[in-house]
Structures are given as C-alpha cells and as structure tokens.
Amino acid sequence: MHRAEDTGTGAGGHALTPEITEADERLFAAITSTRLDEAARQRILTPAVVQPTQEAVLAVHWHPEFVPMELIRSRIEASYPAMRTSLIIPTQHNELLEYGPYTGVEADCYSRGFNQKVQILLHFRTERLRDAGVLKSMLAHTLSYRSTQLFDYLRAVTGEDDAILAAAARETGTEEDLTGLARILCAKLSALVDRHGGGLPQDAFKNKLVRNFVDGFRPELGDRLVNRAQVLLKAVKQLVKVQFPLTYFYRTTEFIEEARALGGGVVIPHPEQFWPILLAEYDVDGYEVWNPQSQRYTEFLINVLHEKNRRRGAGERRMLVFMGDDTHMGEKTLAPGNGNSSKTRREIGLQPAWDDLSIGKKLIVADMDRVRVIEEYTARLDG
C-alpha cells in the first residue's frame, strides 16, 4: 500500500501531494464553520417538502446540529401550515437541546445483555433538568467518544498499521492507487485538525468531517474518483466503529434510570439495527417502528408492540408506536449536490408511513395514530 507521504494520482492524471495548500485551508475552514451565509439561511428557511394539510406533527428524533433553533422553527412552520397538534423535541447526539417546553437527547450507551452499543432517545419537560447534574455529566463523557472515534478513523487510514484499511479495500474491491489517494486526503485532514483543532468546538470532530473534506476535492478529482474513495472510507469507518471499546459507554439501564428519576420519557430508535433490544424489557415508553434508515420491519414491529400491550398488566402503561425522521439539519445548509443525499431528503416530522394504507391497518388494530401518540406521550412528559 502507499504510505501517506506518497503521491496519489487523481482524475486526468492529476498528482495530489500531502502538503497543505491554501485551498486545503479554505476547504477546512468552510467545512468546520458554523456561520451561515445568506444562501445557507435561505436553504434552511425554504423547505423542500410542504405538507399543506397535515395537522398533527410528531417529531421526537431529529438533530439540529449547528443550525439556530429560530431558523428551524420557521422551517417547521413553513412545512406544516395547517399544524394544530404537535410534539417537537430535538435529539442531538449526547447533548441536551430544548425546543419550546421540551428538551431531548439521543444518548449512546451499552447494552451488556447482548454486548452491543445502542442508542436511546430521552425527552423531558425542560424545567425538570435544573438538577440534572449526573445526567449532564454522563452525556458529556459520552459526547467525547465521537471526537475520539474521528481520530481513530483518521489513524486507520494514515497510520503505519494498515490492517483496517487493507480489510476495507478487500471488502470494497478498491485498487492500490485509490487507497493511496485516500491516505493522502486523510493525511491532509489530520494535519489540518492538528493545526486548528484547538480553536474548534468538540462537536466539530465528527466522522462526517472526513466525508465533507473529501467531497471538497470533487472539482479537482472528479465525481467518479471521489465517489469510489467515499465507498472505501465508509467501509473503514464501519470497521473502526466495530472495534470501538464498548466499556467506554454507560449502560442503557443507567441512562434509563437517570431519565426516569428526572421524570423523562424513553424511546428506542432504530430497533431493527439492534433487534435484541426488543427482548430486553427495558423500562421505555415505546419503540420507533419506522425512520428513513429503518423501514423493513415496520409492520412486524407494530405487531410486536401490540402484543406487548395486550399482555400488559393492570396499571401498566402501554408501549407507544413512534416514527422518526432522523433529520440532520446541517445537511440542509449545504449547496445542492453536496452532502449525504439520503440525509438531505429527510425533513422534520415527515414520516409517510403513518399514511401508508397497509401500515395503517396495523396501526388501527394497535389503536395508534399520530394524534393519540402525541397526546399520550405529552401527558407522560407533563405528568
């Protein structure tokens, strides 16, 4: 394999070297900046999808990222001009953020019973978090894992031990020339992080920094070459995630217990990605049965929750059916053609499965719909 100091050959035979150029500096500044220019503000304020007749909006799984909440509020109002009933709570990764009277977070944690990292959504009445020092400390510790993982990711591509990169190259059928190019791009990014990282917020150190930096070379290298590099780098990222030590995380039960002590609600997102969580019998309010990444088992999961509710004892709260849009608002700030196209299409509160005829039959049997879930879950959070 090429080492990071070698030269990579790009589109049209263009040579790329690991030395940092002024263009590299400008690109790094652009992808780490949280300042929105007027074009980006307008992209936020102009929703790609408008639902003119939807009156109920349930959105308890979405990520504001660095976008100001007042712009997000304007976008939501423009997206749902007929909105009358709503429950809208942001769920930033491992960081509490509020919207209206509610605060939420998506916490990474560890389920020891089946030895896997999972995520849970926690939702609160904001005023109940005045004495949430323990929860905030747990989340601060967990938040730091994302920056740690970025550094592991970059080392996996640029380091002397290339076992992960070699495995990813075999998995994706990547030629040696392209692995050399990936090394050079990540070496550039690593050097820029070392040079400027002290002046950046911790939230800037995300895995998607690699994707955005490599995308910045499309004018120079061409779409075909960059797309192939992104496939390889995504495979590296997945292998790095698999190897991240699970003992770093707090246990799922610890987060749930802390949330319950604060009067919070708990929802399991992405259950089809870690299906044993359905068997864990955690103290939760419900499960997400659909989101843009998890659609295969929607009807099955509704049936599972219905059966759980049929067997519940007297006085037990029923499990609620949730759907999540998993929108990442930072993607909305990017110029057309940039970013992750699958994430760009997501919109806060846009969950078409609620209106699917086949799924709708299952929801009727389970006695669930958007309005009922909003009312029941709001009552729990307010109670």
Descriptive key words:
single chain, disordered N terminus, 44% helix, 383 residues, six-stranded mixed beta sheet, alpha/beta, 12 strands, two-stranded antiparallel sheet, 14 helices, globular
Write a structural description.
- The chain starts with 7 loop residues before the first strand and ends with a helix.
- It has a 6-stranded mixed beta sheet with strand order 6-7-8-9-10-11. It has a two-stranded antiparallel ribbon with strand order 1-2.
- The chain contains 14 helices and 12 strands.
- A hairpin with a 2-residue loop joins β6 and β7 (102-111).
- α4 crosses α6 (176-196) and α11 packs parallel to α13 (357-365).
- The longest helix is centred in the middle third of the chain and has 26 residues, at 133-158.
- With 383 residues, it is an alpha/beta fold.
- Helix content is 44%, strand content 14%.
- It has helices at 22-32, 38-45, 69-79, 133-158, 163-172, 176-196, 208-215, 218-221, 223-243, 252-261, 298-310, 341-344, 357-365, 370-382; strands at residues 8-9, 15-16, 56-59, 62-63, 85-88, 97-99, 102-111, 116-125, 265-268, 286-290, 320-323, 327-328.
Concise overview:
With 383 residues, the protein is an alpha/beta fold.
